[in-house]
TrEMBL record:
SUPFAM superfamilies tied to this protein: Tetrapyrrole methylase (SSF53790)
Keywords, ordered alphabetically: Cobalamin biosynthesis, Methyltransferase, S-adenosyl-L-methionine, Transferase
UniProt-recorded name of the protein: Cobalt-precorrin-4 C(11)-methyltransferase
Biological or metabolic pathway of the protein: Cofactor biosynthesis; adenosylcobalamin biosynthesis
Organism: Saccharothrix syringae (Nocardiopsis syringae)
Domain Tetrapyrrole methylase: 5-204
Annotated region (Disordered), positions in chain: 236-265, 299-363
Pfam families linked to this entry: TP_methylase
Taxonomic classification: Bacteria, Bacillati, Actinomycetota, Actinomycetes, Pseudonocardiales
Amino acid sequence: MTGRVSFVGAGPGAADLITVRGARRIAEADVVVWAPAVVEAECVREHARPDAELVDFSRVPESEVLELYRRASAGRLKVVRLHAGDPALSAGLREQRETCRRLGLETEVVPGVSQLSAAAASVGRELVDPDVAQSLVLLGPETAEHVEEFAAHGTTMAVSASGARAGQLVERLREGGYADDTPVVVAYKVSLPDEVVAQTTVGGLEACVKEHKVYRTALFLVGKVLAPPAGRGRGAVLEGDEPVPARRSRPSKWGKRAHRSPSVAAWSAVHDWQEAARAQRRPREEPVPAPVLELVPTEEPAAPAVPEVAEAAAPAEPVVPEQGPRSKPVVAAAAKPKPTEVRASTTPRKPATPRSKKSKRAN
């Protein structure tokens, strides 16, 4: 068994939006590497073991993280490195995996719910539509300066940029061909209690950012597909229309369970294997006691393995010498002898005399 480093996507922010596999990896981990600035602390407290080592990699240099990987390789430790959202959208993932492989560590990537998916779900809009936009362009903070080049495609865009530079973003969107009435969604700290999710347009983007005081890195979704539905198109709801009665589905076992206690039902399975994972990682000084087999004492001591057999009364049955290994003593109550058993005689016998031997020779 070698050490393992799991790169786990912590989701957009809320602790209950992490995947079941990601939560399980945290419960099994000896060391959890995370950044409290981008990953909610509740996500770690909910799933990590009490004796797990927590490392804030935003406050330590990369050399210390490398030393941690070496220690994990030597001690066969399980390490989890948490990423906000999905690890596939984080920078430096490939370099981290190559470093771990050179050290002889196993690597694993556990996907997570991205901020892009959480923002689209928050406003209830799809990001691609066959009739409006058939593709999606993702731009990180490093490529935000080239927005106008990608905006020329006229499709849906997801730009991760600083809110303090919203004015520059608006200029580049206009240069790329987006009109001022193009819908925009501003998403900041999605799924957290202090989240900001606002719908505006390219022309009103700068004022919207100032109104909600979003000056740090946020996610901006741009495209016509984000416009409110109009007419009787897909998903549209018109005012004054009579509601259509919904057909009630047959409740399943899980539905009944969730209806009784939503919070308990949602986390019951998670907590079960969390406790199982923690039990497997108990300290060595507290071994799990093995089951003890109790032996019931008997009133009389056990008979010897090979009892001393007296001479048989009938001369036609000679005494057979002992053959094979000695049988193990049996711990049990004394039972009645079977008819075929040969029991040792309690009556003292007279020693054989030479006279009897001479008589036999004489005969």
